[in-house]
Design a protein that fits this description.
heterodimer; A: two-stranded antiparallel sheet; 2 strands; B: mainly alpha
């Protein structure tokens, strides 16, 4: 592969096996941004900002653990998105220092490719229906402008699965060529 | 803080402000529910 359009094949202290295509690096970073607006929306919603839910759907009528649950869910989704970045970073090829037992060992390609592929399929199945809009027949769900805000925040999630699939394919090709 | 990280922090802060502003600017959402006869 030509060096044009690729990211340097080195990282802090660890040499990467072959150059990462520039598009794959951008796509991996984009996955984190895809998950961000919905996470922000969820946290603001849990903090009590008016999201348009009423009646039994109103968080004020919900259990006490709504806020910690929503924060944990957001942290989890961002952590999962962050793992995708490993497909274009040295720590996706060699286990980093802070991982006990495995530190310094080579990451087997399939150990990254299989979970990333399954994750991308799950994300596509989960979020692609959003393309067809939210089903808001429930009168206690957000409507009008509130629904538009909710939709705008969740719509980027549609791109997460395909982007992860593309980054996983780039990782698989690179590991196949360069070990 | 590196320039890239600073830009990312600014973008995240702008997103938070934008979403929070939109949520606040569109009111409580109650009128829509009222219109649908949902609020008792």
């Amino acid at each position: 592969m030509s060096a044009v359009g690729t990211r340097a094949a080195t990282g802090p202290g660890v040499a990467m096996r072959g150059p990462v295509p520039r598009w794959a690096d951008w796509a991996a970073q984009a996955t984190m941004w895809c998950a961000l607006p919905s996470g922000i929306w969820r946290i603001l919603f849990a903090l009590g900002l008016p999201a348009g839910f009423t009646g039994s759907q109103d968080p004020e009528n919900g259990p006490w653990f709504v806020l910690p649950y929503v924060i944990a869910l957001t942290a989890f989704s961002e952590a999962v998105a962050f793992l995708g970045l490993g497909l274009v970073r040295p720590w996706g090829e060699v286990w980093p220092r802070w991982v006990p037992v495995l530190r310094g060992r080579r990451v087997r390609p399939l150990a990254a490719i299989i979970p990333a592929s399954l994750g991308s399929v799950a994300l596509v199945c989960l979020w692609t229906p959003l393309v067809f809009g939210f089903s808001n027949s429930d009168p206690e769900m957000p409507h009008g402008a509130k629904a538009a805000i909710l939709y705008a925040c969740y719509l980027p999630l549609v791109a997460w699965g395909p982007l992860l699939a593309a980054v996983t394919a780039a990782y698989a090709v690179r590991r196949r060529r360069h070990g | 803080m590196s320039r890239k990280l600073r830009i990312k922090a600014v973008v995240v802060a702008a997103l938070v402000a934008l979403i929070a502003g939109a949520m606040l600017a569109t009111g409580s959402g109650e009128p829509a529910a009222h219109a649908l006869g949902a609020v008792r």
